[in-house]
Amino acid sequence: MAGPAEQAALSFVVPPGEAQRLYSPQALAWRVQNFYIHHDGYLASIRGPAPYEPDRGEGYPVLNGRPFGLVHAGLLGGIGDTLILRAGTRLYRHRGSHRDYQDLISLNGLPPLSSELRPRYPDQFVVINDKIIWTNGIDRAKVILANGIVTPLGFDTTPGSPRVKGPTNTSKDHRATHYPNALGYSWLGRIGTHGDVLDGRSGALLAGSWYWREQWEDMHGDLSPIGPPSNPFVLATQNAASTYGAGANVELDELLRQALVKFSGSAPEHATAKWVHRTPDTKRTDNSFRFRARLPGSSASVFPDAASDSELGPVSEEIAALTVFRVMTAHQGCLVAGNFTGDPGLVRKSKAGYLGTFLKNSWTYPDSGGAEVTGLASHGDDLLAFSENSTYDLSDFSDPRVVARSIGLSAPRSLSALPDGTLVWLGRDGFYARAVGGTPVRVSDPIHRSIFNDINRSRMRMAVSAYDPNSQEYLCAVCPAGRESQTLLLRFNGSSWRRQDMGITIDDICMTDDWRQVVLFCGRDIAAGVNGVWVLNREVPTAVYTPPGRTNLYRSGWLRATESALDPISVRGIYVGFVDGSNTTATMRLFSNGSWRPLATFTDVRLIGTDEDSRVVTDIAGSAVIGTSLLHERRVMWRWIPCSPHLDGVHTWAFEISSTTDTRIAAFAFDVSQAGSGSPRLRIPRHADV
Q1: Do the beta carbons of residue 42 and residue 64 sit within 8 Å?
Q2: Cis preceding linkage at 642, omega within 30
Q3: Three-class SS of residue 570?
Q4: Considering only Cβ atoms within 10 Å of each terminal Cβ, which end of the chain, N or C, has fewer?
Q5: How would you classify the pairing of strands 416-417 and 423-427?
Q6: pTM of the full predicted structure?
Q7: Which residues 6+ apart lie within 8 Å of 505 measured at CB?
Q8: Rg of the chain (C-alpha set)
Q9: CA neighbor of 304 nearest in space, from 351, 334, 248, 262
Q10: C-alpha angle with apex 311: 190 to 165, nearest 5 degrees?
Q11: What's the pLDDT at 285?
Q12: Long-range contacts of 514-522, Cβ-Cβ distance < 8 Å, separation of 24 or more
């Protein structure tokens, strides 16, 4: 037995995160599951979750199918508290005091959404300009307002060609009795080009031609592509002083005409206005179209145009038809969209303030080979685009710059930022982080085993993330290996990792954009068969809702007396500093020499200190007796777990604590001593020993 001089008590604060390495730093554990870091610095077991709308005796709010997407936004300057949920083929809005969900698809008379049960990309939401933009990569993107109005984003179709009526040329049979431009739709106006005198005495109207195009506008001010040109409006040459059948001279201003424009009549339901575009005289100027007029309402069928060329507005901007896209972000007042149907490598940027209006020439391919764009992010002043293999800077939209080769993005919804601005995301080989203006670095090396062994890599693209302001952690929900639903939540505080498994699928996750700053997620309680929205780390009385059972697990890393673990030691006891939790027990297991086969199991480790007849409440406030019981602040109390002979003469050792109730761990200490006498290294097996 070792003497006192050979004994030591090693004490340190509980490691806050994981490092799945045989020779990991002792500052990190092997696994930390269903624990979070309390604001007092210790590990506390996860609470909840709680249903956002519990069963109040009439059942849970009915949702049409599995949840897919979730967002909360404080619209209208923060007074429009808006929670939007996509479930099945419907978009729902939570109706506050009504405590239910309103079907926005039916309310707005829109066709049902896609019922794809295994989508390639997760639903995405972007909040910008008091609007919520939604896309799932299958259906047309939608604009959602605080009052529940839902419209398609922009236009995916183009107006038809307008028909224009004007004067017709005088035939040979009528030239004697009718002056040019007198027949057909011949009304006085201001269209025409005055020219030099033809007869040496008077001015003339020169021959010319004009064209019109149609464009739609919606309630958000977004514009459709401009339709094809109309038939030409043609004026023939005419001398102002010429006399015709009636013998009257024609004044110069009387030579000018107006056109009657008839529209295609194909405007979609969400169009609220028409824009009219017209060329100047194409025989005297270029063929560029210019803005002519905006006509309120989508039902206008004709427009008499009498304006001169000098009254035309600026040159018309060519707008691209907005097809289905899979990824998007907001950047400097613009909506940036990428991975379009049929063109997965394309990225487009909208006009500032007009989220559904994409100029035809505002596009880029981040990857020169056209690799599929898997995500977009606004990070500081930088606009980032990702493929599976690379990261790009699109700040100069016309000249993409490679930020990092071999570092890409697998899960578009895994992009979330920490309080210091660091952006975190999930790539093919782990999680990466980028400080503003910096270079991406991999931050998941401590949990590399989980990345490759514990995650269903075929479902990695559907991972979703959010920032939890209460624990100040990055949260990312992934699908565990061997499963098809996302039930594993990885937590990262900027330096260490933990994990959480609640027994409820996490199909999407978000933080409330209000004073509450709680984390919500949508999913399915598998055991209860309930779809809905849940509040993370919150509880309701068990009479209202009992969450699925789960195990709180703290497994230490492999501990050793020396850095090399060449010297065998004996562990006499482990001291665990618990913070008062619940009046229940936990289970503790001991391991040695790299084997996770338990050497000893203790099932009676109490999680609360002795009350010493102090009348202190021994469990929770619900057990207190008014006038009798006393309350106190949670305290650190120590429990001793004997380890000899189980951990005698070991090179490395580990332990784990598991429970199903409220557990709070503050610190550990170990009573260890050098094993045996003489040189301890003589006990190392020789090269041929079995």
Answers
A1: no
A2: no
A3: strand
A4: C
A5: antiparallel
A6: 0.89
A7: 485, 486, 487, 523, 524, 526
A8: 36
A9: 262
A10: 45
A11: 87
A12: 514/72, 514/74, 514/78, 514/81, 517/469, 517/470, 518/470, 519/466, 519/468, 519/470, 519/475, 520/52, 520/70, 520/72, 520/83, 521/49, 521/70, 521/477, 522/67, 522/68, 522/69, 522/70, 522/85, 522/87
Tell me whether residue 163 is exposed, middle or buried, using C-beta atoms within 10 angstroms of its C-beta: 0 to 12, 13 to 18, 19 or more: middle
Query: Contact 69/134 with Cβ under 8 angstroms?
Result: yes
- pLDDT at position 3 is 38
Instruction: Report which residue type is found at 628.
Output: T
If we measure between CA atoms, which residue out of 237, 238, 313, 319 comes closest to residue 280?
313
CA geometry: angle at 127 spanning 126 and 133, to 5°? Answer: 55
Taking the C-alpha atoms of residue 448 and residue 430, their distance in angstroms, rounded to an integer, is 7
CB 590 within 8 A of CB 643: yes
The whole-angstrom separation of Cα 669 and Cα 415 is 39
Query: What does the DSSP assignment read for 349-413?
Result: EEETTEEEEEEEEEEE-SSTT-PPP-EEEEETTEEEEE-SSEEEE-SSTTS-EEEEES---S-TB
SS3 622: helix
Q: Output b/e per residue, 626-651; b: 16+ Cβ within 10 A.
A: eeeeeeeebeebebebebeebbbbbb
For tokens 């990261």, what's the residue? 391
What is the distance between the terminal CA atoms of the chain, rounded to a whole angstrom?
Answer: 27
Give the DSSP H or E segment for 106: helix 104-107
CB-CB contact of 359 with 319 (8 Å): yes
For CA atoms 452, 453, 455, 456, the dihedral sign is positive
Task: Tell me the CB-side half-sphere exposure of residue 434, using CA atoms within 13 A.
Answer: 27
Beta bridge partners of 405: 390
Helix or strand (DSSP H, E) at 107: helix 104-107
The single residue listed with the structure tokens 């006085």 is 188
Q: Where are the domains of the chain?
A: 4-47+552-683, 163-311, 411-506
| Structure confidence at residue 283 (pLDDT) | 92
Tell me the sheet residues that pair with 488: 478, 501
Partner residues linked to 450 by β-bridges? none
3-class DSSP string for 53-84:
CCCCCCCCCCCCCCEEEEEEEEECCCCEEEEE
> In this structure, how many other beta carbons lie within 10 angstroms of the beta carbon of residue 387?
21
* Phi, psi dihedral angles at 680 (to 5 degrees): -65, -20
pLDDT in tens, 484-539: 899 999 999 988 899 999 889 999 999 999 888 999 999 999 888 899 999 998 88
Tokens representing residue 469 in the block: 């302001």
Q: 3-class SS at 684?
A: coil
The answer to whether the bond into 645 is cis (omega within 30° of 0) is yes
In DSSP notation, 246-272 reads T-PBPPGGGG-E-EEEE------TTEE
Residue 451: DSSP 8-state: I
Per-residue pLDDT tens for 258-273? 999 999 888 999 999 9
CATH number of 4-47+552-683: 2.60.120
Q: What is the pLDDT of residue 174?
A: 53
Question: What is the structure's pLDDT at 11?
Answer: 54
Run means of pLDDT, 10 residues per run, the chain, 690 residues: 44 71 71 89 89 86 90 92 95 91 95 88 95 96 97 96 88 60 89 73 84 96 97 89 56 88 90 96 92 88 94 96 97 96 96 96 94 96 96 94 95 95 96 95 92 92 95 94 92 92 93 92 91 91 86 91 77 90 91 93 88 59 68 82 90 92 91 67 59
**Cα–Cα distance between 371 and 388 in angstroms, integer?**
8
